[in-house]
Model the fold of this input.
Amino acid sequence: MSWFSKTLSSSIGRKFLVAITGLFLISFLVVHLVGNLQLFKDDGGNAFNVYSHFMGTNPIIRTMEFVLVAGFLLHIYEALVLTRRNQSVRPVAYAYNRPQDNSNWSSRNMGLLGTVILVFLIIHLWNFFVPARFGGLEGVVVDNVHYDNLYQKVVQSFHIWWYVLIYVLAQIALGYHLYHGFQSAFQTLGLNHKKYTPAIQMFGAFFSVVVPAVFAAMPLYFFIKDVVLS
Done:
């Protein structure tokens, strides 16, 4: 085994991979959020459908989808390996153990939070990504160009109370996951400085609240507007 593979298979190397893939997935969240803000435009979904068509047909974006899937799988796998390794090192808990005294709740439940997010992603992809890529959507014409009406699918889904509930709960889990993961990634990469670390932690806390909140606002917006107030 080469020094490179030995390094990546060590605990430090695996933490490095979790950190790198985590920051990569965070960048995807930002891009995904900015694109989905088209849902709030009062144009009958035209802007969102044009955006969705671009994301589904642009060759660079389609190539990056494979990179994104690889990033997800690697992040999940390395996190699972680290968790199992930590459990094997300490198979029996201490007689006196108060983890809440030196760690926050999110850091102690990253596995649970990640599982909730993973289940949501599977449901979310099945509901939106599969129809968008493999057919099953009605068509719509925007400026004399035919597009798949993914906006209609989004609105229909966000009229279902249990799907809205799952979506919002998943965003809460995402917020807690980001709260620990963001600052932990920088710490793992050795980017600690008495001057900059507090700013990173503050931005991480801000990011972990705002991004999931805006995502959660999307289903709540349509459900309240079209179902509750109609």
The chain has one domain: 10-228. Residues 171 and 213 are 7 Å apart (CA to CA). The beta strands are 139-142, 145-148.
